[in-house]
Design goal:
Elements: H1 26-41, E1 46-48, E2 58-61, E3 73-83, E4 87-94, E5 97-107, E6 109-115, E7 121-127, H2 128-141, H3 152-173
Antiparallel strand pairs: 1-2, 2-3, 3-6, 4-5, 6-7
């Protein structure tokens, strides 16, 4: 397994619409394993393949708390089949927009279908944090970041903050 580089705003590759996975094979599973290791290392709770430069419809996630055993989940070609009308605001963050957090309103429940790690079809309801996280990660597959839901000013500030942090990091390394 390998730790991959996570793309950050304003990298234009984050705006790509991801392509469906044609076949769940060892190459796809290896990518998911690398993504999971990358996500744990970051640390984060979800990661879409496009965030590591692979515009494929793949997501990894682990919502286990720090004191719980890891509970990795894998989503290949996920689709949201329906959502409930009730929405709640959640404070979201993103590994592609480091150290930026803001509230986004999303449906509190959604029904989804996807292929699991082995390529088996799964259909289930997601609720609460699981619903928020899967919707956030599925946005990545469409080239949408959580900051796209914010006002133009907040979005610009978020991108500027990330650019400044990257610039400082580069200067420190030199």
């Amino acid at each position: 397994m390998a730790i991959l580089d996570i793309l950050t705003v304003p990298d234009p590759r984050l705006k790509q619409v991801s392509k469906p996975v044609e076949k769940v094979d060892d190459e796809v599973r290896a990518l998911m394993d690398d993504m999971l290791e990358t996500m744990y290392n970051a640390p984060g709770i979800g990661l879409a393949a496009v965030q590591v430069g692979e515009p494929l419809r793949i997501i990894v996630m682990d919502l286990a708390k720090e004191d719980e055993a890891p509970a990795p989940r894998y989503f290949i070609n996920p689709e949201i089949l329906e959502t409930v009308a009730e929405e709640l605001p959640y404070e979201e963050g993103c590994l592609s927009v480091p150290d930026v957090f803001d509230e986004v309103e999303r449906p509190i429940r959604c029904r989804l279908k996807y292929l699991d790690y082995e390529g088996n079809p799964v259909e289930e309801w997601a609720e609460d944090m699981y619903a928020v996280c899967i919707q956030h990660e599925m946005d990545h597959l469409e080239g949408t970041l959580f900051i796209d839901y914010l006002s133009r000013l907040k979005r610009q500030r978020a991108v500027a903050k990330v650019k400044k942090a990257q610039r400082l990091k580069t200067e420190d390394a030199a």
